[in-house]
Amino acid sequence: MSPIRIDRVQPEAALPGGEFTIRGSNLSGVVRPEVLFGDTAGSVVVGSGNLVIARVPDAPSYGELTVRRDGDTSNSYHCAIGIQIADSLHSVANPACDDEGNIFTTFSGSRGQKTAVSVYKIDLNYDCRPFASDIMNATGLAFDQRGLLYVSSRNDGSIHQITPSGNMTTFVEGMGIATGVCFDPAGNLYVGDRSGTIFKINPDRDVFVFATLEPSIAAYHLAFGPDSYLYVTGPTTSSFDSIQRVAPNGEAELFYRGLGRPQGITFDGAGNLYCAASYAGRRGVVRINPAREAEHFLSGHNIVGLCFMPSRSLAVATNNSIFRVDVDIARA
Fold first, then answer.
1. Distance between CA 306 and CA 187 in Å, rounded?
2. Prediction pTM value
């Protein structure tokens, strides 16, 4: 009998419930193969000759991926699989990570809903504790260079500033339906208004209208790129949404089109953009290089945002959980 061999697995990473496409030799025979994640079997979605598609189980044992058929086992192949570190949350945008590796995320609630806790802190031991309250519909999160956390409220258009000890003050008000927030290297804060306006707030708290997008594009998620452009996404019902970018003079242009419901975005140290979105019918995280070539990077469902940790790991937020994914990429 010819040996079973795995040659390639795509994408590079997945959350439980996501899918890997496995290519190789003699992967499937008369009997459907088993795909093992460590010692735990995943569900085989497609098994045909030299291609197998397998779904990551809800509780993988986090070993290497192997294929077993007719009593034979393939070579092992390393795949990055997300480890759940917090649940029972309600994230609607990127989580945020401080310099020590603590992760901050929201319990946002539905529009106008008052929640008991607005922001949670997940420490290095993955203990998830309340960090801030009394922010109606906490949405976007961003740290400034001093380690202060800024939180937008899409309910009343305010931006709140929170110290590492949890002391909170209102930074600015009147930002419309305030959603995405991010900083540029000079310390200017950008705030996306769901109606399409992007505000720029300098360190003296002077507020300017930086750019205006079509309401159908909106500015729900923001990230400042290494090219000094501001990148913007806003999910719609279209399966052919775009990522816009805004030049330093406030002029907006199309960066990439062809994503389904693009949401949270971030950059790595090589200038690659990562976006929570669907791509070519596959859900998860898309990576777009500086040449604007896209690939499916991580498979998973209900992903709304992501951020880099001080290590080379990604913190990935679904609408109710946070996962840590250990991937070997240049940190932003």
1. 21
2. 0.95
Closest by CA to 265, choosing from 178, 180, 192, 161, is 180
pLDDT in tens, 194-248: 888 999 999 999 999 999 998 766 778 999 999 999 999 988 777 789 999 999 9
Is 5-81 a CATH 2.10.109.10 domain? no
| C-alpha separations of 212 from 163, 195, 229, 307 in Å | 31, 9, 15, 26
Spatial CB neighbours of 62, under 8 Å, sequence gap ≥ 6? 37, 38, 81, 83
Every domain of the chain and the residues it spans: 5-81, 83-326
| Lookup: tokens for 276 | 């929570």
Residues 46/38, Cβ–Cβ less than 8 Å: no
CATH match for 83-326 among 3.40.50.10490, 3.40.50.300, 2.40.10.270, 2.130.10.10: 2.130.10.10
What is the DSSP secondary-structure string of 140-202? EEEE-TTS-EEEEETTT--EEEE-TT--EEEEE---SSEEEEEE-TTS-EEEEETTSEEEEE-
Any idea what DSSP says for residue 1?
Answer: -
Tell me which of 227 and 30 has the higher pLDDT. Answer: 227
Cβ atoms 24, 11 nearer than 8 A: no
DSSP secondary structure letters along 34-74: EEEETTEEPEEEEEETTEEEEEPPSS-----EEEEETTEE-
User: pLDDT category, 331, cuts 50, 70, 90?
Assistant: low
